Amino acid sequence: MASDANAVVSFKDAFKPRTSPPPEPTTRTAHLEVINVTMDYGSFRAVDNVSFALSRGERLALLGPSGCGKTTLINVIAGFNKHAVGHVRINGTDVSRRPAYRRDIGVVFQNYALFPHLTVEDNVYFGLKMRRVSKAKAKPAIDRAIELVRLEPFRGRYPHQLSGGQQQRAAIARAIAIEPEILLLDEPLSNLDAKLREQMRTDLLEILDELSITTILVTHDQAEALALADRVAVLNAGHVEQIARPIDAYENPKTQFVAGFLGESNAFDGTVQHRPDGTAAIQIGPQELTFAPRVEMPSGTKARVFIRAERLRVSRSRLATDNLMEARLKHAIYLGGEHRFVLESPIGVLMAVSSSESDLSNTYKTGEKVMVGCSAASLIVLPDDEG
Ligand SMILES: Nc1ncnc2c1ncn2[C@@H]1O[C@H](COP(=O)(O)OP(=O)(O)OP(=O)(O)O)[C@@H](O)[C@H]1O
Question: Tell me, what's the ipTM?
Fold first, then answer.
């Protein structure tokens, strides 16, 4: 945000709707840079040497299991953790030594942290008031922020008079009213029930598209990350395992952790074998599964294969696919839009999901024999870490 109060009136021009996702940054075009950030709580390392850069308008989701350091990392970026090591740059300027209120970062906290004694309008005005902008001067920015999140009818209400979704929108309006360079959203939808959550996901996407603001979103919900972000950073025990476009992280995970964390997979340990005919297989007990190697692994490499539940095909008759196995149906669970199968196969218990019309119109019986298979290309085989 510009430091001079008059600039606030230009709020209408501060954000432009996004037309397409911005390209990934180069060193020269980076808007936000996080460089070798490490944060310890006593002897516990919560964030371990994290680096990444975002271009202007880019949206990154920090995704990972509970306790992996997501909140700690955005608190460091926001300036709430003074003891962090490393650098945060915005537009090429190192802001690491600046206090939170001088970083031009808007934050939406997990619990929204709205001031209970202030109306929506005054909550939204809060950041500008702190910057000594008079309410009259701030009015256009307040109006625009409230309009963006569609809370005009509720501007005079107090937080306790709002629904969860409305509180969430008020928190977003408060964060963007200061025209921040960067928006940080910590688990923005986690306080909402499942149905509202899905609706708010679409609303949030629209708001973020409208703003076209550089955003980091913390979530442990994959669907949220995949739906809202241009790229995802998968965190594990404080470090970034992979940062990639959602489709690349899902289809081409670089580590066993990412492969197991994203999506719903069946995982088995085995040994890689290269056959004389040039194809590759992974031996799991008595069974060999053919796969298309994505990384170089000599014969004898200990590896783990990930078989995505939705890539398995189940049929009563023979299927034209690789890796065909006979299996016994332990459970067939009909969920309306999809059929879930739990199968006993020669490599172990498999979970398969099908939304194909033929499977949905079929009734399967527990104990019946079926065929299960998956293409060689769909298997993700990644070597075990050495040591
Ligand atoms: N103030 C603190 N003192 C000591 N340890 C802390 C403190 N805050 C967080 N931690 C620890 O640091 C690790 C990372 O916590 P953090 O809240 O960043 O994780 P997270 O990925 O955001 O988790 P969640 O998804 O559950 O919110 C956790 O193991 C947590 O117990």
Answer: 0.97
The answer to whether position 152 is within a domain reads yes
Ligand 1 near 39 CB (within 6 A): no
d(CA 71, ligand 1 centre) in Å: 7
CATH of the domain at 280: 2.40.50.140
> Which residue's CA lies nearest to atom 6 of ligand 1?
41
Same-domain status, 235 and 282? no
pLDDT attached to residue 43: 94
Closest CA to 108 of 164, 188, 192: 188
Q: Are residues 236 and 289 located together in one domain of the fold?
A: no
Q: Is 44 in the pocket of ligand 1 (CB under 6 A)?
A: yes
Q: For the segment 214-253, what is each residue's pLDDT rounded down to a tens digit?
A: 999 998 888 889 889 999 999 999 999 999 999 999 999 9
Q: Determine which residue's CA is closest to atom 17 belonging to ligand 1.
A: 71
What is the 15 CA–ligand 1 centroid distance (Å)?
A: 33
User: H-helix or E-strand containing 144?
Assistant: helix 135-148
Distance between Cα 73 and ligand 1 center (Å) = 10
Which residue segment(s) compose the domain that 346 sits in?
Answer: 264-383
Instruction: Answer yes or no: do 284 and 335 share one domain.
Output: yes
Predicted pLDDT of residue 3:
44
Domain boundary among 201, 219, 251: 251
Instruction: Report whether residue 68 contacts ligand 1, using a CB cutoff of 6 Å.
Output: yes
Same domain, 284 and 243: no
Closest ligand 1 atom to 235 CA = 21
Question: What is the tally of structural domains in the chain?
Answer: 2
The answer to whether the CB of 234 is under 6 A from ligand 1 is no
Residues 6+ apart with CB under 8 A from 272: 280, 281, 282, 283, 293, 297, 298, 299, 300, 301, 302, 303, 381, 383
What pTM did the predictor assign?
0.88
Strand order through the sheet with 105-108: 105-108, 182-186, 214-219, 59-63, 231-236, 239-244
Around Cβ 28, how many Cβ atoms within 10 Å? 6
| pLDDT (tens digit per residue) in 2-30 | 444 444 444 445 667 777 888 888 777 89
- 356 shares its domain with 228: no
Q: Last residue of a domain, which of 195, 219, 251?
A: 251
Q: In this predicted structure, what is the pLDDT of residue 10?
A: 46
Cβ of 109 below 6 Å from ligand 1: no
In a domain, 257, yes or no: no
Q: Identify the residue whose C-alpha is closest to ligand 1 atom 1.
A: 41
| Residue 256 covered by a domain | no
